[in-house]
Amino acid sequence: MNIHEYQGKAVLKSIGAPVSEGVAIFRAEDAEAAAKKLGGPLWVVKSQIHAGGRGKGHFKEPEAGEKGGVRLAWSIKEVVENAREMLGHTLVTHQTGPVGKVVNRLYIEDGSDIEKEFYLSLLIDRETSRVSFVASTEGGMYIEDVAHETPEKIITF
Q1: Distance from C-alpha of 70 to C-alpha of 108, rounded to nearest angstrom
Q2: Is 45 helix (H, G, I), strand (E, B) or coil?
Q3: Which fold has domain 5-110?
Q4: Over the chain, what is the mean pLDDT?
């Protein structure tokens, strides 16, 4: 089963886990209302596709701009501009291959100061047919680089 980030965060929130506030949108026209609901002064506009590497990805279409699929916005105007650029365009990441995936929804989230990033995932290990936890104190957006350069910093159990 594939779920989007905003759906996963709703599940986590329902069991009391602390998650940033956010609003899922499907139309660029809804970006302004979503940003106003969250309040700012910093928002994160996140493409919702079933693939990793969204922040480091790129859009096929020139009108989507040169930024990746996760963008910071410091004004409501920027939130709206990013939504217009991203929705309906094709995001290419290392997991999508060159074909990419069309962005049909965005998650607009309250921005926060990040002092330290961690990585934690739950996945099904196909070799053992069991659930595995993968964790690292070096995580975040560059977990693939950590896995390649310093695999000892990733713990699997």
Answers
A1: 10
A2: strand
A3: Dna Ligase; domain 1 (3.30.1490)
A4: 94
